[in-house]
Amino acid sequence: MSFDVEPGRTLAIVGESGSGKSASLLGAAGLLPASASVDGSVLYRGQEILGASSAVLRKIRGAEIGFIFQDPLSNLHPLKTIADQIGEAVSAHRSIGRKEKRERILELLSDVEISNPAKRLEDYPRHLSGGMRQRVMIAMAIASNPGLIIADEPTTALDVTVQASILDLLRRLQERHRTALMFVSHDLAVVSDIADDVVVMRDGVVVEYAGADSIYSTPKHSYTQALLGAARLDGPRTFAQPAPFGSREPLLDVASLGRSFVSQQTVLDDVSFSLGKGEILGLVGESGSGKSTIGRLIAGLDRPDRGTIALSGAPYARADGAIKLGGDLRRKIQVVFQDPYASLNPRRSVEAILTDPYVIAGERDATRLKDLVRQLLADVELPQAVLSRLPSQISGGQRQRVAIARAIALRPSLLIADEPVSALDITTQAKIVELLRSLRDRLGVSILFISHDLGVVGELCDRVIVLERGRIVEAGPARRIFERAEHDYTKRLLASMPGGRRQNKFITAKVASHVG
């Protein structure tokens, strides 16, 4: 592969998982393990750095090339303060006094627009929101005023408003310092908001390389066209066509739900809603709005301070008593978590993972267990060959299918899907969305779909509930929410969806051309 990036411009590298996006940049920066073979030439400001000594690379990395990685929680030290970690980046390539270092740390925190920076110096990463942690990572990346920043999926796990603010921040920093930016992403909608040039990769090969305007208006390669077809450049591509909710028999009833924590303000305040049998209900809102807390309460993993939760008319969670989720009721409520890396045992085969639910339910016949597991794989459209593999030996999309298979093994009435596609590339996302819709149609399972990705919610969900700071501010059919939102908060979420800048740029260009 070949590409170049100039000062003040942004080059995006896009493609599905496993296409070689991250590997190419790690190889160029000399960060791949010694077992990797990297050929060719990598010039930074005219200096050859491919094959350079470790001492030379240490002087360039951090000082001349800054890095922003996908998950700040994994890349920030949990036991070091924010000041210590940014301070290390500041002093790594030059000698600096204590007072000057503190002033530089405060300056960097201000640059990345963290309010009250002096009060944040002694905070640990756990004290910060996801967006603030990513801003700290950006502060570390720009600490030595590098000429190039490599950002590897820096907004994937962030909600739409935080994602938009991070993209705006990167753009402003780039304009201020004339920094070159390389932006790795699987999301063409996000890339459309920031890229000047785009490299499209597939199976380790560059299939298209052109200016962003050309890529988005007249893509040449069929793979680029397929990626654009899967992208949500101006909202959901289609909307679910549900039967009227009033015709569905209620399955889940949540009444006046409230939850508070000692270390926080009220997380949920008087939340009430119903979920019908066979319905897919979307729960959206920014980080900290209470989405996952609702999912945990419904799953019986936490107890409410106020209100009740009932399944098929039978209350099982209330503030004045213990959670009653025994036997049959426990089987009827299952959860699919965001990260299958964390929710699947890395040391057990797929077959063992999928056998567990049946064994726990009392099935002991070996032949019967094999038949059940084979049928489960067919339900989630996985090949039988994955049975002998560990989670690390299958793709991200396959891992999520295994997690879904485990959740539906005992044929639950309610499936709680908590951000199940946020870490997947757009084509894999589309397949998982179609799988969930198919499972609803074939098995009649109801789904509470928790997500910050409004495009996915619009395509999958029959109805949508919008949460702001623990309160429901708007609810209704998905199409109505997207096309005729009523609440200002909902409108702000929709306005923050990626892809808007590219659309506006095309509109402006067309108007200018017409006027000319």
Taking Cα atoms only, what radius of gyration do you get, to the nearest Å?
A: 24 Å
Strand residues, percent: 15-25%
Helical residue percent?
40-55%
Major beta sheet, strand line-up: 4-5-6-1-7-8
Number of strands: 18
Count the helices. How many?
Answer: 22
- Global shape: globular
Biggest sheet details: 6 strands, mixed
Structure report:
- The protein is an alpha/beta fold.
- Helices cover 40% and strands 20% of the residues.
- It is built from 22 helices and 18 strands.
- It has helices spanning 21-28, 54-60, 72-75, 82-91, 98-111, 117-120, 130-141, 160-177, 188-192, 212-217, 222-230, 291-298, 327-332, 340-343, 350-360, 366-379, 396-408, 426-443, 454-460, 478-483, 488-495, 500-515, and strands at residues 10-14, 43-44, 47-48, 65-68, 148-152, 180-185, 197-202, 205-211, 250-260, 266-276, 280-284, 306-311, 314-318, 333-336, 414-418, 446-450, 463-468, 471-477.
- The strands form 4 sheets. The protein has a 6-stranded mixed sheet. A 6-stranded mixed sheet has the order 14-15-16-11-17-18, with helices on both faces. A 4-stranded antiparallel sheet has the order 10-9-12-13, with helices on one face.
- The longest helix is centred in the N-terminal third of the chain and has 18 residues, at 160-177.
- The protein starts with 9 loop residues before the first strand and ends with a helix.
Please summarize what this structure is.
The protein has helices spanning 21-28, 54-60, 72-75, 82-91, 98-111, 117-120, 130-141, 160-177, 188-192, 212-217, 222-230, 291-298, 327-332, 340-343, 350-360, 366-379, 396-408, 426-443, 454-460, 478-483, 488-495, 500-515; strands spanning 10-14, 43-44, 47-48, 65-68, 148-152, 180-185, 197-202, 205-211, 250-260, 266-276, 280-284, 306-311, 314-318, 333-336, 414-418, 446-450, 463-468, 471-477.
